[in-house]
């Protein structure tokens, strides 16, 4: 597969859209009982519609003329998602006009009720064909990075990677052969990014096109589970990988983000984050596989991500950009004469 010109991101998934029943239904009813806006509302008067979801169970609830989204955390997610940090960060994003209003959040089990945002999600094909849409996505990320309030958690560079390793060891989960082929190189890239002296900013860290929702002239980001303080170029690199941008689309994204000329070295970090994005989400896929998530074939998904990581890192341009990011760090370490 050609690394830079592939269309779409990765293997098609089959989102979970099951109707609520049993314990899940009880959780929904209990959550609504804690939300003032639902006070006195009979369950029989609530219309429930399952929504596509890969690791959680999500439902659109319609009652008294308004629409909401109820998220019930998926099996095993509490082992690798800090729900307290998610709530803190999601509420900050809401205050900044970037997220749906959060009406209820239980940090113990991850149940969340928010306003439903009525608008189309961005999609990979649409972004490919529309430079203005790429620019809107990039400017939305610039707004996220400029929120001005610290997020509660730290993500960079992809801090959960070490924890995912521990989870997989504890689950005695096998690793695909291609993982062993990329591990050394990806970890070396990760260490270079760690050593880079870059101020951390609030980041979304899961910038797939489907998490961008357009309403009129505004763009919202949903799903702040992985949000945290990070190198802002992580969000741009991840968007590029998830959407399959080519170099021209990367240029449009970067120039929109920067408001013109891209400062030297900035795009070097974006390219490095592309590789680590594949590495991170590959490990994430293995965790989903080990937890028995039914949404898709996560073993195949993870293998695809590692294969793409291998292809990205095998590119001559990648090695040049890796050296460019590493060089200032090595210079800073040298003792003064």
TrEMBL record:
Molecular-function GO terms, alphabetical: ethanolamine kinase activity
Question: Keywords for this entry?
Answer: Transferase
GO CC annotation: cytoplasm
Q: Where is the Aminoglycoside phosphotransferase domain?
A: 48-261
Pfam families attached here? Answer: APH
- Please give the biological process terms from Gene Ontology that the record holds: phosphatidylethanolamine biosynthetic process
Query: Which protein is depicted?
Result: Phosphotransferase
Species of the source: Rubrobacter tropicus
């Amino acid at each position: 597969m050609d690394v830079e010109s592939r269309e779409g991101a990765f293997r098609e998934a089959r989102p979970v859209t099951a109707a609520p029943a049993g314990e899940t239904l009880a959780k929904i009813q209990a959550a609504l009982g804690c939300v003032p806006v639902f006070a006195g509302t009979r369950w029989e008067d609530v219309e429930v519609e399952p929504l596509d979801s890969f690791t959680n169970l999500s439902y659109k609830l319609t009652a008294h003329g308004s629409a909401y989204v109820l998220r019930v955390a998926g099996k095993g997610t509490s082992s690798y998602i800090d729900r307290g940090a998610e709530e803190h960060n999601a509420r900050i994003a809401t205050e900044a006009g970037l997220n749906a209003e959060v009406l209820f959040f239980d940090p113990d089990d991850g149940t969340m009720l928010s306003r439903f945002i009525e608008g189309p999600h961005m999609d990979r094909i649409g972004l490919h064909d529309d430079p203005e849409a790429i620019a809107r996505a990039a400017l939305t990320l610039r707004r996220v990075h400029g929120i001005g309030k610290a997020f509660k958690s730290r993500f960079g560079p992809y801090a959960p990677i070490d924890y995912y390793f521990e989870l997989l060891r504890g689950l005695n989960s096998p690793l695909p052969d291609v993982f062993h082929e990329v591990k050394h190189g990806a970890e070396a890239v990760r260490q270079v990014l760690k050593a880079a002296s870059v101020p951390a900013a609030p980041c979304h860290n899961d910038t797939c096109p489907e998490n961008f929702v357009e309403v009129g002239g505004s763009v919202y980001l949903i799903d702040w589970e992985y949000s945290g303080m990070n190198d802002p170029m992580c969000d741009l690199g991840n968007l590029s990988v998830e959407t399959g941008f080519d170099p021209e689309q990367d240029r449009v994204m970067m120039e929109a983000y920067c408001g013109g000329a891209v400062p030297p070295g900035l795009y070097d970090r974006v390219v490095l984050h592309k590789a680590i994005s594949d590495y991170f989400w590959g490990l994430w896929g293995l965790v989903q596989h080990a937890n028995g998530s039914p949404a898709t074939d996560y073993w195949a998904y993870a293998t695809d991500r590692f294969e793409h990581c291998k292809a990205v890192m095998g590119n001559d341009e990648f090695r040049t950009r890796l050296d460019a990011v590493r060089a200032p760090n090595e210079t800073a370490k040298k003792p003064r004469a």
